[in-house]
């Protein structure tokens, strides 16, 4: 897909015929509009799926970028990643009389992106979609890489498809209306990239004040994270490689985080907040396994705390349900729990043979009872 006038130098995700560009910059509504017009000129129908809260807070952006394109607004929140809302979106696509040449723009955070991407993956067995992430988490993580999906009552992201977007437009100006809590949750994923494979980024974060939506460096940080994600996805698009550099490494802290989210009740902890505690667990587990030298931890808790993120549970959660939730996580392989562990800051790998007693001890260090 070609964009005519580029105001920003795009990053590229190199996946053969599924390759695409990521545009990170400010005030991108004009660039998006040019793409919309060029698609329409080739007789392709365009529809927009947008997060309801974003639509309320940034109406001018949507009008400038999409004009009169048909638009469906989706309620905010994790419960929108449901079979019911998937049905609503698919009906909207059908009612909009889309054919296989159509393109769906998905504008919102990870929830809208995951649901909208999955709808695009399944409608007419797959049509094009373009991600317009509007949260920090979506800009640095969920909009890149082609994982789409919804939740079932049995667990998060249990239904989905790999379906790469045709382009990603991350307009940093949109972060201005994001709540500080949601912004901080996105920073958890930024810190994750540093810990799992980018020591330079991690050290830069350590030396910086807390980031906010107006930090001059934030665009640069987002690009760096997208570059990291792009390289990992290029090496292991479908998460089949559990070795060094595989996509599974992006799950650093996530086996713990998903259990926290499930046991505390979805919504109690934002995903990024649970990931923050999960990364502390991953660090502790790495120390217990003697991969990482004890007491030589990479100042993770101070960094997370400075960014307003939790490092322990806000209220104790019972150990047993946390362990049960870990076992039903889709990352479990052949009944074995798998963890991303660290050998050093910026050097991580997947460990499969972790003794349960160490996992239990790890949970206790962050307040499980
Ligand atoms: N596909 C992937 O690779 C991947 C990776 C990580 C996370 N995820 C998924 O992403 C989801 C979390 O994403 P999220 O944190 O973006 O949550 P989200 O989509 O729920 O957005 C968070 C909140 O911010 C609001 N919002 C969005 N943009 C805004 C803006 N610019 N200004 C003001 N408010 C705005 C939303 O209405 C919502 O209330 C989870 O479902 C998680 O499973 C997917």
Description:
- With 369 residues, the protein is an alpha/beta fold.
- The protein has helices at residues 29-41, 52-57, 59-66, 83-95, 110-122, 136-142, 180-197, 199-207, 218-235, 254-264, 271-288, 300-306, 319-328, 356-365; strands at residues 11-13, 20-25, 46-51, 71-74, 103-108, 128-133, 147-152, 155-162, 167-171, 339-344, 347-351.
- The protein has a 4-stranded parallel β-sheet. It has a 3-stranded mixed β-sheet with strand order 1-2-9, covered by helices on one side. Strands 7-8 form a two-stranded antiparallel sheet.
- Strand 10 and strand 11 (347-351) form a beta hairpin.
- Helix 6 packs parallel to helix 7.
- It starts with 10 loop residues before the first strand and ends with a helix.
- Residues 1-6 have low confidence and may be disordered.
- The structure holds nicotinamide-adenine-dinucleotide.
- Residues 51, 53-54, 57, 76-78, 81, 108-112, 114, 134-135, 137-138, 141-142, 145, 147, 156-157, 174, 177-178, 182, 185, 271 line the site of nicotinamide-adenine-dinucleotide.
């Amino acid at each position: 897909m070609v964009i005519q006038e580029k105001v920003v130098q795009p990053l590229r995700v190199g996946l053969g015929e599924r390759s695409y560009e990521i545009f990170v910059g400010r005030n991108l509504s004009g660039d998006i509009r040019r793409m919309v017009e060029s698609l329409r000129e080739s007789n392709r129908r365009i529809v927009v799926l947008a997060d309801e809260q974003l639509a309320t807070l940034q109406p001018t952006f949507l009008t400038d970028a999409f004009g009169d394109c048909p638009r469906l607004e989706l309620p905010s929140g994790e419960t929108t990643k449901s079979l019911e809302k998937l049905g609503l979106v698919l009906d909207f696509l059908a009612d909009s009389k889309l054919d296989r040449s159509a393109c769906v723009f998905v504008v919102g955070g990870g929830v809208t992106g995951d649901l909208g991407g999955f709808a695009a993956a399944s409608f007419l067995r797959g049509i094009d979609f373009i991600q317009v992430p509007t949260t920090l988490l979506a800009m640095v993580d969920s909009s890149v890489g082609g994982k789409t999906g919804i939740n079932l009552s049995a667990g998060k992201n249990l239904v989905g498809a790999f379906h790469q977007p045709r382009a990603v437009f991350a307009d940093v100006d949109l972060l201005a209306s994001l709540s500080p809590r949601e912004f901080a949750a996105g920073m958890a994923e930024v810190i994750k990239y540093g810990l799992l494979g980018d020591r330079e980024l991690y050290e830069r974060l350590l030396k910086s004040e807390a980031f906010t939506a107006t930090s001059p460096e934030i665009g640069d940080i987002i690009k760096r994270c997208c570059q990291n994600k792009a390289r990992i996805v290029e090496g292991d698009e479908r998460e089949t490689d559990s070795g060094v550099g595989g996509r599974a490494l992006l799950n650093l802290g996530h086996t713990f985080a998903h259990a926290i989210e499930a046991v505390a009740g979805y919504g109690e902890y934002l995903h990024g907040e649970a990931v923050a505690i999960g990364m502390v667990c991953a660090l502790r587990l790495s120390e217990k396994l003697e991969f990482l030298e004890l007491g030589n931890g990479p100042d993770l808790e101070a960094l997370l705390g400075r960014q307003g993120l939790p490092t322990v549970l806000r209220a104790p959660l019972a150990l047993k349900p946390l362990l049960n939730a870990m076992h039903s996580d889709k990352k479990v392989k052949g009944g074995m729990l798998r963890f991303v562990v660290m050998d050093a800051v910026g050097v991580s790998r997947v460990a499969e043979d972790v003794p349960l007693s160490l996992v239990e001890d790890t949970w206790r260090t962050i307040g499980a009872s």
